Amino acid sequence: MSNVPDHIQSAAFEAHMEAKECLERSLGRVPTHEEILLALAEAFGDMMGIYAGAGAQPHQIDAINRIAQRAYTSMLSKIMAHGCEGSA
Question: Would you call 2 helix, strand, or coil by DSSP?
Answer without folding.
Answer: coil
